[in-house]
Amino acid sequence: MKKMSLLVLIMLLFAFLSTDQTTEAAAKYSETLLAESTKAYALTSTQTLLVDHVNNQLQVINLSTQTIMWSKKFPIVYDSQVLTNPLKIIVITSDNNKLKKVTISADGTILSEQVFPSIKLTENIKISWAPAINKEKEKLAVVNGNQVLFYEYPWKKPITTLPYSSAEDKKYEYTITKDVQLQTPYVVIKLNGDNSTQSQDLYRILNITTKKAITIPAEWNVNTSFSVEGNELIVNSTSQIGHPLGINVDSDYTIYAKYDLKTGEINNKVIRSFPAWDSNWKSEYFNRKLVLTESEDNKMFLINQYGETLKEFPRTIENFNYRTVGYDGNRLYLLVSSKDHGVELVSIQ
Length: 349
Prior knowledge:
Elements: H1 2-26, E1 39-42, E2 47-52, E3 57-62, E4 67-73, E5 79-83, E6 88-95, E7 98-105, E8 110-116, E9 126-130, E10 139-144, E11 147-151, E12 160-163, E13 174-183, E14 186-195, E15 198-207, E16 213-220, E17 222-229, E18 232-239, E19 253-260, E20 266-272, E21 281-286, E22 289-294, E23 299-304, E24 309-314, E25 322-327, E26 332-338, E27 342-348
Antiparallel strand pairs: 1-2, 2-3, 3-4, 5-6, 6-7, 7-8, 9-10, 10-11, 11-12, 13-14, 14-15, 15-16, 17-18, 18-19, 19-20, 21-22, 22-23, 23-24, 25-26, 26-27
């Protein structure tokens, strides 16, 4: 009888430990990493930086070992960028309500910190940082109200201020400033114009030198993401799943486009049309490649920055709830939603 009781106790202890380990595995990757606001940057072929703007957290994951190499939390993450030669990460955050720049090495070591006490922080402020390059000095762009304020050393007061609202914004019931990215001498501001049941993303390119503005509208009722590379604006789109108006059947949708920052003209693009009003697609731009999934196809497409299809993968996930975090030339790495484990890292080839 004692042996039986001991055996039962051991089994219960083993079940408890197994459950605890499963919980830890489930909690490894937060569900917020699948949020639209999360950004992913390739550090190396096996290491990816994830910037979680919901939890204001940076994590570097190793794709080969499926481990989190390091993680850091901040009061807020206004901007984050990855610089090369040498590889390092820039985070624009705050400290005691003062704007702060933190420079981090690829292994998570804090290399330097700089506080900008003269730049005032407000509730809905948007901020972007740009490194010194060629003859341009290091700069900060601060979107506050309907203006963009530009700062550089000694960071005491704006070197220039530009309004970014336009008369064409009046065709919407209201507009919301979503994001900003500075790439001297240009700054790109993402806006969203809303008309009750419909909305449209707008990209306003301001030339700091000439003070001229160009507006690039996306299609109605799609979600878009953007990045700036060199002298080009990259915009990719995803359908709004479940939108009551659906999509326009057999109309061309711009899934991906590269726009010249100076002229606003398209240099390369990927377009698709869909046969049904409830068709859907998802696209993600990661490490100069586009990952595209369409509801009518059981494949995922890997497309290069020039719009050419590099590879097709079998679509192994039922929904569009995933995030691209890596590609090693053979396998595609994704964070996917899992009913049993929350979020897990998978690879397909």
